[in-house]
Amino acid sequence: MPWTERQQALLQAMGLRVWAEPDREPAAEAGSVLPPASEPAPPAAPVPAAPPARARPVSSPPARAAAPAVASALAGLDWPALRSAVAGCQACSLCSSRTQTVFGVGHPQAHWMVVGEAPGENEDLQGEPFVGAAGQLLDRMLAALQLSRAADGPPERSVYIANTLKCRPPRNRNPSAEELAQCEPFLVRQIELLQPRIILAMGRFAVQTLLRSDEPIGRLRGRVHRYQGVPLVVTYHPAYLLRSLPEKAKAWDDLCLAAETVEGSAAV
Ligand code: SF4
Fold first, then answer.
1. Rounded distance, CA 110 to CA 195, Å?
2. Ligand 1 mean position to 238 CA, how many Å?
3. Which residue stretches belong to region Disordered (predicted)?
4. How far does the centroid of ligand 1 lie from the alpha carbon of residue 122, in Å?
5. pLDDT at 110
6. Going from the N-terminus, what domains does the chain have, and what CATH number goes with each?
7. CB of 183 closer than 6 A to ligand 1?
8. Ligand 1 within 6 A of 49 CB?
9. Which pLDDT band holds residue 73 (cuts at 50, 70, 90)?
10. Contact (CB, 8 A) for 199 and 227
11. Helix axes 132-143, 248-267, angle to 10 degrees
């Protein structure tokens, strides 16, 4: 289906380059206007960044105003097209300091989804979320439940891992509300494509983005929330667990709650 002028305008507002219309690109899947993932990502297009916050009415908080419209513009993208769109994104200033974007990793039909915060130094260098010590801890915790981020395992034992933000903030500073709002539509589309049975939201910014809540994690964990109808369990970020070992037991409880939720929904 060809892109509407509105969709193209929104993509360009995000700094996303539209390569070709689907009906002019026979090799592309329906709705895909970007090169497939097997091709190297093209260099970032020299298009302007997203409109600055001052262009919006001051009464519209950026974190609430940007996401729905841009998510609509991304609605036709499949996995390869979405990955390419992220690779070329210049919608916020983080594009200028990143080594590369960090899209996500795992089985595209995984039943589990882990949503983290933002890439750190190792993630920025390797292009994969949750690497380094925190990633190893996450992998060990998942392995204890016979779960893996491998892309070729059975979907019910697979975890797809993505961050809320696809580019590393300089010096690992906290992301701004504007950056989170600009990047959120990519995460929304990832969740739409994956249709996970359970989401594990790890860390403050993942929780704020998915639940629209500023409450501390300690008050949100221990129960099952919902994101677009998908069960969601809040837990601590593995990087925090490395610094606060007593919280590991709570994080393990959270994983067990998530597992019970998935098993419960499968049994219905
Ligand atoms: S952080 Fe997200 S919105 Fe900002 S440039 Fe990277 S991909 Fe685009």
1. 8
2. 23
3. 22-60
4. 17
5. 98
6. 5-91 (no CATH), 112-267 (3.40.470.10)
7. yes
8. no
9. confident
10. yes
11. 50
